[in-house]
Fold this sequence. Notes:
Layout: E1 6-7, H1 9-20, E2 24-32, E3 35-43, H2 51-54, E4 68-73, E5 81-86, H3 93-110, E6 115-121, H4 129-141, H5 147-164, E7 168-174, E8 177-182, H6 183-193, E9 200-205, E10 212-214, H7 224-230, E11 237-245, E12 254-262, H8 271-290, E13 296-302, H9 310-317
Parallel strand pairs: 1-3, 5-6, 12-13
Antiparallel strand pairs: 2-3, 2-4, 4-5, 7-8, 9-10, 9-11, 11-12
Helix pairs in contact: 3-8
Amino acid sequence: MQSGISVSQELVSEFNTLLADNSLFALLVTITAESLTPLTKIHRSSSSSSFASDLDQLTPYLKPDEALYVLLRRYHDAPYLIAVTYVPDSAKVRQKMLFASTRLTLARELGSEHFRETIFTTTAKELTADGFDKHDKHAELEAPLTEEERTLGEVKKAEAEAGAGTGVREIHLSKTMNMPLATDALAALSELGREEGSGLVMLKIDPKTEIVELVPDSSTPSTIPELTKTISATEPRFTFFRYKTTPPKGGDEKNVVLFFYTCPANNKMSIKFRMMYPLMKRAVLTVASQEAGIQVEKKFELEETSEITEEGVHEDLFPATETKTAFRRPKRPGR
């Protein structure tokens, strides 16, 4: 289900202060009551302090089990800021999902033009002077390719795919992230959009290649209980399901496509692998809509497959209508 998390007016105000006040080093942000809210501001330790030395001030706020957004003033020319998402391994699964899937919303609603870089971290050590030094060296190694290098890379990639007999489609999520989708996965989505096939498409991400793959399955569920038995209870999944049902109180049959994003609590999965899913979800839905012609009626985001119930799905598909009564003016005293 959609979180609906957005930037609060209080955060907008504090962020504008961060932009205007050069003595401010950081603005810490959290999620409270379904909203992005400011936690605290941190000033530079002195007018002559360096970015590296000021990082020590973050230590008391970086808890081993609590996620946090850290907006840092790093550069002397615009854009001055970097946005850091800190999601430690020991944080609760739901909090990890919320912070990972909302990080783009934070930068977008505050203004992406203000941030030179966005960084995802899982340890407090990454937010130290040594941690940033390693990050900078790694970023230098990943310098943008020239047009010639990029073209040569695409040719080699095409040759490798042809030799392996598999096709991959690149989904562009942002300027810095591409998501490859296996062609059989796209074909299955297209079948679902045409109301062909089994009515079920389950997708997973290969952690080694980061390719979105089709989960092989011959099941043909027609009910929600049958569906929950087919979805993995141990690994994340993107599931598209064509569901035909009638309202509990009678009426015309509905023929709709439902989308389920499930991410079970599994300590054996690496944080990087787990975070791929909320980051890729929007791109998967975009391809399903724009390239496979699928109109998703309802989207559900849950941790465990046991949370998927027929009653819950029906509540979303057939919301109870409120009976409104006409407003009656109170009688005047003595009448």
